[in-house]
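This week, look over our next protein:
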Amino acid sequence: MYNFLHTEFYHNTIICYLSVLFFIFLALLLKRFISKYFVTLLFKIVSRTGRKLNRIAFVDLLLQPLENFLLLFISFVALDKLTFPKELDVLIYRVTLFQVIDSASSCALIITFTWLCLRAIDFVATILEQDAEKTKDQSESQLIIFFKDFFKMILVIIGFLLVLRFGFNKDIGNLITGLSIVGAAIALATKESLENLIASFIIFFDKPFMVGDTVKVNNMTGMIEKIGLRSTRIRTEEKTYISVPNKQMVDSIVDNLSLRTFRKGALHFEISLSTKASQLQALINGIKNILEKEEALKNSSIFLKETGKNAHIIEGEFYTEMIQTLTEFNTIRESINLSIISLLEKSNIMLASASSDVYVINK
């Protein structure tokens, strides 16, 4: 029995083969238990910080990549104890079979480790998102998503470089130098894209607006649905979906309607020059009464702005709270319009011309 176990077969003894098979079988048998132990231990450590996490979702996130990494790592360490048979070390397209296997194993180990790190980033982002949900500031959630994607992209690039270095024995120093030169050329060719990328950082840190806000930019009004690396997506009042470059969002004057304390309505109409001063005073007093009777108005004013060659110009403004919907605000404007028209008819006051009319605009 002793002689049999020490019999050499392809430059390795039988006992060496059995030992390697034993450790690989042990890794297959215990990988789930070991992975669950480490994941559970990490979950307990994080739970002690006072954060409430979904244990099942947390385990599902990290368990599988950790299992694969442990299995590959233990298997490669065990197989490294064997001497690769020279008889099998054939030449395959100018490289030996041993080099192919060694490169493939290194690539597999790097890829599984990168996968594990990507899941770890997802886990950290999940914790931060849960903390951000406790606040009303939606920009924090958007910022977390942005940096999660950014760091995952950086990690994938690092993983790719490690595969080239350890899997294919490439000198990544020269590659990085070459990539920096190419990157400089690409940067010049994609100047606008880089400007939009920098503008996205400005938006995230300066926070002139965030997802869910209603803004007015370049005569377009709509709600912010997404802030990306290159552009900001806006759902307009016409329900169209437009993309505005981030650089334009930074350089242009953006009116954040959601941050207004009140919604403003403006009055403007022109009265015929034949109207007497007493009639104008009575009209102004009547409009004041109309505005005062509107319970939804928080403040209002009406006055004779000027009188000239063509008409007496009366202007005014009123304010409602921003919590009102646009439909409710339009209903108030319609009610004020109709009341003023009725007042003009009762007072026998004519407008300056047939083209003139009473109107209320929202600024």
Notes: The chain is about 60% helix and 20% strand. The first strand starts at residue 8 and ends at 9. Residues 97-133 form the longest helix (37 residues). Confidence is low (pLDDT under 50) at residues 354-363.
